[in-house]
């Protein structure tokens, strides 16, 4: 942590916070919808809360289409949000472009999934990094300063010796090296938070860990706050301090990575973990064909009422189809929560026929 | 699992381009697929695993040339023959009816302007011209039911189906002529883990019912360990290790296999620091001398840089059931 100019900032300080973040994408209207009052929209992200702290990695896990990339783009202010708030150091920010956006991007940088597409094939590595340094005012005043800054950036991402890479074109580098250049470019802004949208899923298996270890190393040295978006829950366990699970645009479970992966509470998280390949479970593909919630994610134009997982959930209760579950503490570890009625004692008790709680619930329904 | 071979690959070599400019993508590959087994083929991108699959089905697009070797196919009740020596007519009979292939992106393998039913029908029409239209439809419906798609989706267009359903249609299409061998080239990489498990579970079930053999190509070794019988690992166009899935997982001999296995963070057990494999995959144009893995190998020693290790049975207790190409494990019996 001594290398960073910002090392004075205490670790654990909140950098970026999303509160009730919501994004609906409008659906193109057809002629027959002309006189409808309600407009269809894809409910890509609904009511997402997350906090990025200095020196900590938060993983956001979910299937494709669960809205995890949309969250990253909202946090990077690449999309305007529909509702909710994004706070940078406690201050609400909404930027659209121009200078305010640059100032924001200086502090919050994004790394994209595909390093083959995110680097311009007609420019050298030197050009990419110089632009990042100059735009964000870290290029210094002389050519020497710039040269030093470039070498420093490449050294930080372990592309050494820097001279060997500076004048290469992206196509001359391997996938892992390209992703390292993309990371160096993000670091050129000297950001406080990095939003990494599936940074390793396009890379070869053998070099994925190298890039993850690099990110972890940078997090520690530069005291960065990192949002790590992935569909691979095992890598979230490996890399992140805190894991959040998303399903169909909503957060369903969260907590420190170890408790979320070792004692998953939400039925969807359990399904995800059971589905992940596990070499220790050789040849039992046939044994566990029981109902664990197979099927597909719902349409987000008209998401299911209540819990969005209830049509697939093997443990769905009547209440799940009507009421949106709230965050409930699990109690096995501090901060471990799930949005599932299974952890609400009253609801579970109501499942037992003839119980007092069931009668109460029926009465409550009647009076509403 | 009977030990009878169904497909034998002998010294297969595939180049891209000709002469000095040629890139040698597959080199001296020997591999045997037995009846009813799932053979996993793992390796990084550029290791030649897909080229091998296209080579043995003779689907290589032009700069690709098969420069040597044999692919012996053993039909169920007939004499074995060399696939590489087939003429156009023989090849047409061999493809799909004997060996079917499921390509990487199911999204792109189905024709977007034709209904599913038309596409299934086309296969039957081309390969079994004597079949009546009625029985063709019946067969197509049956196949869709088998892969878990309700037959009333027959008249859907590909864009009306989800990714998982399209992949199922592709698998059903591959199985419709009841081939002996099904080659799957990264069939589930574009899918989510939940869908991936469902489809693979179904595939295993179908294999037990219909008795075909599978060559399963992927870069996800942890997936292979769980569900294939034997695994062959490719690096730089060669097979570097081949063993029973359990043996490979419990005690892999080649440092590259060990490195690959160590590249997957575990979901269970202790959390430990993993390193992956240093360096990057080799450039096929400028292969390192000797063992192509030696620049990245943590255990490289003197002979590695100079001599290419031979693939053969190692000198271990279970040595006769596995092969490895590494100087750390002296070969008792090289593979012919």
Automatic annotation (TrEMBL), chain A:
Domain of life: Bacteria
A GO molecular function held by the record: ATP hydrolysis activity
InterPro entries tied to this protein: AAA+_ATPase, ABC_transp_ATP-bind, ABC_transporter-like_ATP-bd, ABC_transporter-like_CS, Oligopep_ABC_C, P-loop_NTPase
Coiled-coil regions listed in the entry: none
Keywords per UniProt: ATP-binding, Nucleotide-binding, Transport
Any GO BP annotation: transmembrane transport
Ranges where the ABC transporter domain occurs: 29-273
Cited Gene3D superfamilies: P-loop containing nucleotide triphosphate hydrolases
Pfam family, one: oligo_HPY
Name of the protein: Peptide/nickel transport system ATP-binding protein
Naturally occurring in which organism (per UniProt): Pseudosporangium ferrugineum
Automatic annotation (TrEMBL), chain B:
Recorded GO MF terms: ATP binding; ATP hydrolysis activity
Domain of life of the native organism: Bacteria
Biological process annotations from GO: peptide transport
Residue intervals of the ABC transporter domain: 9-261
InterPro entries attached to this UniProt entry: AAA+_ATPase, ABC_transporter-like_ATP-bd, ABC_transporter-like_CS, Oligopep_ABC_C, P-loop_NTPase
Record key words, sorted: ATP-binding, Nucleotide-binding, Transport
SMART domains: AAA
UniProt similarity note: Belongs to the ABC transporter superfamily.
Protein's recorded name: Oligopeptide/dipeptide ABC transporter ATP-binding protein
Organism: Pseudosporangium ferrugineum
Lineage of source species: Bacteria, Bacillati, Actinomycetota, Actinomycetes, Micromonosporales
